Amino acid sequence: MTKRAVIALGGNALIKPGQKGTIYEQFANTRETVKSIVKIIKDGWDVVLTHGNGPQVGAILLQNQAGRDLVPPMPLGICVAESQGLIGYMIQQCLSNALRKEGINKDVVTIVTQVLVDDKDPAFENPTKPIGPYFNEDQALKLLKDGYQMTKQKNGWRIVVPSPDPKAIIEANIIKALLDDGIIVIAAGGGGMPVVERKGWGLDGREAVVDKDLSAERLAEAIGADVLLILTDVPYVYLNYGSEDQEPLRKVNLEEIKKFYEDGHFPAGSMGPKILAAIRFLENGGERAIIADIDHAWEALKGETGTHITK
Ligand code: ADP
Ligand code: MG
After folding, report:
1. Is the model more confident about 14 or about 269?
2. 230 Cβ contact list (under 8 Å, min separation 6)
3. Was domain 4-225 assigned CATH 3.40.1160.10?
């Protein structure tokens, strides 16, 4: 049986620190990122890719805001869908080109993906996730009128939105069917568009963002992945991260990582959700979760680097 991996690409897969995020930069970064993915595919893995969208969805929000007198601004869920399209297109094209160059005959497709959340998730009462760019006070007032919640930070105003817990991937069955057909799938980008189930109506979008690592885990569960590979900008998960005695974790079991998680080694909003995703994946039948840096994805999957979490 072919092994299956869900690979979550961190923000640095597409935009490097200090870059403006022009489309040329993003394509150049994506071409680099897919190199290790090609090696993984060459090794025979079935692959589902997912990715973050922070800077991209932020840019779309800003464009909406700047053009609001010319075209109606779009709500957040729509902006997330747009970002899935634009990022999916980049990865799809770069990966297809790279595969073809290696003589690998495989198709790549992006699935616009919705993620089911609970309408009663307490996160909806307490928006905590700042998203997108900084706005000045005038812009912030307009956004408040549009119904956004805003928070004032050092560098200006930002939109804050709820970040509910993902429960299920709506398009899971089609993603699975595509994998069974040998197709490489890009899905649940930016954590997916959060939707709730309403009686007598069906699915309905909500103004929120879902953490991409937690959605990647639901995706991994749904397709019966063997490995959840979370790629980011650090080579290992560390204990006492940022202090002089920080210590890389190379191999760690479920019980140990749960204890470190409870001891507060992994902050919310960065390493926290990755660890929670790893814990959930193992508890829900996954074999191995790996957290590693994006340039060594292939080596990490082979067991040569990265933090490996197993039962
Ligand atoms: P991504 O876009 O890949 O999701 P994040 O910024 O959300 O990136 O998460 C990765 C970051 O988590 C690292 O750059 C690092 O600064 C931070 N981090 C926080 N705690 C830890 C830890 N214990 N070990 C490693 N990295 C950590
Ligand atoms: Mg993150």
Report:
1. 14
2. 8, 10, 213, 216, 274, 277, 278, 289, 290, 291, 292
3. yes
